[in-house]
Design goal:
By secondary structure, chain A is mainly alpha-helical. Chain A has twelve helices and two strands. In chain A, helix 1 crosses helix 9, helix 5 packs antiparallel against helix 7 and helix 7 runs antiparallel to helix 9. Chain B is 23% helix and 12% strand. The chains are: A mainly alpha, B alpha+beta. Chains A and B meet through helix 1 of A and helix 2 of B.
């Protein structure tokens, strides 16, 4: 790796993180705006044009609030909790392929923080660590209710991770690769996984709602029924980190959904567009412009799912905790296993038949 | 008693397969909420846009002057007696020679104070006043205050400004309804406000 490549790599990783943070920041604004529109009101519109400076105003407010640590709390763990939640949420964004590759002067730069051939395993590993952020926060608060809330949140996250992983296996069986870049490349054009895996997609999206602690699975932090959850003792920017981590999680899981089931940067007719562009602008510029269009398509898909999260939030009421556990263990996991069996049978028996037909 | 025509008979019947499938119901719900996304917003941008309060709205108090600019109030104290919240206090004084252009009668209120924390805006002072001097404005609230010395409003705030006289088009609910009906039919577009009797 020479110096140029090193610099390019550093810049890519840096910009991926900054991009994720900015999108998460503005999803807090978007959430309030969507909530307003769905409830027939305007939402924030005082800070800046259309309320666009609202995230900055919120951040300012959180910084000026009292930074309180309970006397008997474990001080270091109390600070580590929100940092862990934020860190794990942010780390997962490193392997998301935002687009195909940029070409200039013989260098090929992938629009992806890290090109890893175990990308999806890495995402799951890092997302699973998010439970520590919650658990450490609840434990370090030295408050029985926070601890109970943390245990509740942890058990929910872990049980939905099982169904999520199982629903994903069907995708892995079809693509026989763990690399996110490879999975996207296989869904070339309109050959998206959603058409082969509708059931898997439903399970996956349900589980990612639960993983992000969003309505209808937001029991870890519902303040109305259960008087706060693991973050009862948190205030100021430390609480802000927990809430912000939720929005980062939202964007990351929307990106993962878009990559796994909706073809990431692929769109129908992309080959034709690519040919036209390379013919018109030369091979390098045409390739780069085509990549930019693909990236825009990717963000369109990912941000639609961010919107979908908010849309669902104002539609479906919260689950009761036993219903939530029932759904996770008794409905989603059997369905996911059923999906694996069907996919396995299809891959084993149907695929050779179809390929022999085609040949 | 039926209040709306939206009531529905509740039943305990078995759910159909479609209903039990759960997902169609979620899709219906999502459709309902997204419909609101594009609906007309009912919000009013308050400090810039203010809703019309109606001619019988009871807002902040005003002490009227007559057509010559003389104060109508004679400090009889009937408003204070009628006030259920005991928010009104006044000190009467005698009109001196040369003050005929200031006060209509021989007696006037040297001090007239309304405690805005006590006032319940019931409008009984309006009704009690025999001189048509005190009114609750239909077009202005009592502004928000944060200081103790802003609670009690003296004559400096209450007495009418002759350069910006307060009039209203309708004085009773019935008159207001008649006026609204006329407006709706396009009959009365520009109603001349009636002088206060």
């Amino acid at each position: 790796m020479d110096l140029v490549e090193f610099l390019i790599k550093t810049a890519t990783i840096f910009s991926v993180f900054v991009l994720t943070l900015v999108i998460a920041m503005y999803s807090t604004w978007a959430e309030r705006k969507v909530a307003g529109f769905i409830q027939d009101r305007m939402g924030p519109n005082r800070a800046g044009p259309g309320g666009l400076l609202q995230p900055l105003a919120d951040a300012g407010k959180m910084f000026f609030k009292e930074d309180f640590i309970p006397a008997l709390a474990n001080k270091w763990l109390f600070i580590a909790g929100p940092s862990l939640a934020m860190l794990t949420a942010l780390l997962a964004s490193a392997v998301i392929p935002f687009g195909s590759t940029f070409r200039f002067d013989g260098h090929e730069v992938a629009l992806q923080g890290v090109e890893s051939n175990i990308g999806i395993l890495y995402v799951f590993g890092v997302v699973a660590l998010g439970v520590y952020g919650i658990m450490v926060g609840g434990w370090a608060s030295n408050n029985k209710f926070s601890l109970l809330g943390a245990i509740r949140a942890a058990s929910q996250n872990i049980s939905y991770e099982v169904a999520m992983g199982l629903s994903l296996i069907a995708i892995l069986m079809m693509s026989s690769s763990l690399s996110l870049g490879e999975i996207v490349a296989q869904q070339h054009g309109a050959n998206w996984n959603i058409f082969y895996q509708p059931l898997g997609f439903l399970i996956f999206i349900t589980c990612s709602f639960a993983e992000c602690n969003r309505v209808p699975f937001d029991l870890p932090e519902c303040e109305t029924e259960l008087v706060g959850g693991y973050h009862t003792e948190y205030g100021s920017m430390k609480l802000g980190f927990y809430l912000f981590a939720e929005y980062i999680n939202m964007f990351v899981s929307s990106s993962i959904i878009s990559v796994l089931y909706f073809g990431g940067y692929n769109y129908p007719g992309m080959d034709w567009v690519y040919e036209q562009l390379t013919a018109a602008l030369g091979s390098q510029t045409g390739h780069n412009v085509a990549t930019l269009i693909g990236t825009a398509v990717f963000f369109g898909k990912a941000l639609f799912f961010v919107f979908f999260y908010m849309w669902v939030r104002w539609t479906i009421p919260r689950f009761r905790y036993d219903q939530l556990m029932n759904l996770g263990w008794k409905k989603l996991i059997p369905l996911a296993i059923f999906n694996i069996i069907i996919t396995g049978a299809a891959v084993l028996f149907l695929k050779p038949v179809i390929t022999s037909w085609l040949n | 008693m039926q209040l709306t025509n939206r009531s529905k008979q509740v039943s305990n019947k078995e759910m159909t397969l479609m209903e039990r499938a759960y997902l169609p119901a979620i899709a219906t719900g999502l459709a309902i909420t997204i419909k609101h996304f594009f609906a007309k917003k009912v919000t009013i941008q308050y400090p810039e846009v203010k809703r019309y309060l109606g001619p019988v709205f009871r807002g902040r108090h005003i002490l009227k002057r007559d057509a010559d600019g003389r104060e109508r109030c004679t400090a009889c104290g009937l408003c204070a007696v009628a006030c259920p919240a005991e928010a009104i206090q006044m000190v009467a004084a005698e009109r001196q020679k040369g003050e005929e252009s200031l006060y209509r009668e021989e007696k006037y209120a040297a001090v007239y104070e309304v405690n805005m924390l006590r006032c319940i805006f019931c409008g009984l002072c309006e009704e009690a006043c025999p001189k048509q001097a005190v009114y609750l404005r239909h077009d202005e609230f009592v502004p928000v205050f944060a200081e103790r010395d802003q609670v009690i409003w003296g004559k400096d705030l209450l007495v009418e400004d002759m350069n910006n006289r307060y009039t209203r088009e309708a004085w009773t609910k019935e008159e207001a309804h008649v006026l609204d009906a006329k407006r709706a039919h396009g009959e009365a577009t520009n109603v001349v406000p009636r002088a206060i009797p």
